[in-house]
Amino acid sequence: MLKYFTLFVVLAFTGIMVNAQNVNGNYKSYKTSFLDRHDASLNFKENSEHNIAVAIERTDDIYGYVILQDPRIPHVLLTYEIVSDVDVFKHEGITMYTYKAKAMHLKKPKDTKVIFYVKEDNSLNLMIDDDDSSQAWLRLEKQSDLKSKNKP
Predict the structure, then answer these.
(1) Which of 34, 66, 90, 138 lies 20 to 30 Å (CA to CA) from residue 28?
(2) Cα distance between residue 36 and residue 78, in whole Å
(3) For the chain, where are the alpha helices, taking DSSP H only?
(4) Which residues pair with 30 in a beta bridge?
């Protein structure tokens, strides 16, 4: 399960340069919440381990990727391709970095937003948001940096 994630991250990020707002790297999150905008019975909050990889820097038409591994479906990597430059918004001690993205793991890629929330204490949260739902991963813990082949 973790081997699928590790293998994909190594293959997917070979050659992607890394520097975006110092959020690039491999993370774990142990708390998540999900909001379904059409069916509240599907909403949940839970403590579970998620693996998350972030590599953002524009190279040609690709701005980068965010890849998540959900413990309920460990063989499916939830892949979000960043398709826009960042929009930065600061409010009450929180800086939000918002990117337009495509959910590439779906049969028909779906428009989404990838939002990083950085608090004054440098704690990091991630939200994936679309017209139908949103999911947040709280208190991301950095496990390692992703190295660019163009930088030391």
Answers:
(1) 90
(2) 17
(3) 2-13
(4) none
Q: Which residues pair with 97 in a beta bridge?
A: 88, 116
- Pick 69 or 15 by higher pLDDT: 69
Record the pTM: 0.81
d(CA 120, CA 94) in angstroms, rounded, equals: 6
Q: Which of 119, 122, 113, 114 is nearest to 142 (CA)?
A: 122
- DSSP E strands, the chain: 25-29, 31-36, 44-46, 50-59, 62-69, 77-82, 87-91, 94-103, 110-119, 124-129, 133-138, 141-144
Q: How far apart are CA 63 and CA 69, in angstroms?
A: 20
Q: Does residue 150 contact residue 65 with C-beta atoms inside 8 Å?
A: no
Name the pairing type of β-strands 133-138 and 110-119.
Answer: unpaired
Q: What is the pLDDT of residues 32-54, one digit of tens each?
A: 999 999 999 999 999 999 999 99
Q: Are strands 124-129 and 110-119 parallel, antiparallel or unpaired?
A: antiparallel
Q: Which string of b and e fits 47-73 if b means at least 16 CB within 10 Å? A: eeebbbbbbbbeeeeebbbbbbbeeee
